[in-house]
Amino acid sequence: MSWDKILGQEKVKHLLIKSIELDRLSHAQLFISKEGSGGLLLALAYAKAIIENDKKNQTTNSIVNELNHPDIHFIFPNNSSTKVKAEKTESSKYLSQFRDFIKTHPYGNLTDWLSFIDIEKKQGIINVRDAETIIHKMSFKSYEGGHKIVIIWYPENMNSQAANKLLKLLEEPPLQSVFILVSENINAILPTIISRCQLVKINSYKVERVSSYLIDTKNINQEMANNLAVLSNGNLNKAIKLAEDSPESIEFENYFVKWVRSAFMAKKNIVALKELVNWSNEISLWGREKQKNFITFSIAVFREALLNNFELGNCKFNLQTINWETFSSYINGANIEEILNELNKAHYHIERNVNAKMVFLDTSIKITRYLHKQQLQNQ
Length: 379
Prior knowledge:
This protein has 379 residues and is an alpha/beta fold. Helices cover 55% and strands 7% of the residues. The chain is built from 18 helices and five strands. The N and C termini lie far apart (60 Å).
């Protein structure tokens, strides 16, 4: 992975390149990266640049590009599968698939990875065998006499045994070793591990950057690209998925309008409540990714309505069936946090295969109450 293959993130690239040029490599670095912002790709490019700086060699460069260099090691969440027994699970068993995953899903997340190796119904864990394997590998001299690098993707998914063994390694690092941890949830990492690392913050992409990327790579028009960029909220992984399913956006809009209208009326209308039940039944028949994309769409529309209500800018969405002025009047500071919390919880539960019909009906009933919250306060 080369720097020029990664979208944007120029400030982080400059910082990392300078650390190599000035020979100021921290032995442990924690990349704090939101989903879809290129954290893993930056770690790969950084590792490649370190190896190239150690020994400029075309063969070496080629091996690094194929993610197959003997001095670069990987740890990532895994679990047992039809091919790997539970007592033998560790990252090395899935290394070939991991290389393929990075090439085909460069901005992919943990859910994408677990689905890629057909264990999406299991929890991805970094267990103690991974830590023991890395300790063993790092005890040897590097293959080419330079740095040895360990990239740990989703360190927040380490179990306690693995985390404690890694901590000892970070406290007494082998000579010329570099550990790069790439996390989306720093709060789930042991504070003692965080204290041993130099923090590198990687920001989400701006809407304009995502929109331009979609236009250049997905052959869609400016209006659609802008809508999808807003929906993704700076998450390039989500934006790419939405672009690949872009015809769904019209369907999402129709379902959203039907949903909100029924939710608003359901408080005093039993027919509308029955419509919510039917709506939940219909959407429960969709695939899981489509359901998650609809929730992402809904979150973006509610956020946009709040901004419109507070007159914080022109509406970025070009949706045909939503009257923004009317809809926005019901989205306010008194209910937006609760609405977004419910939608985020729904997304979490769908991702973990909770019964979709129950998830969407429960969310709908709660949204019904929240949409009337300001009116109740004003009475």
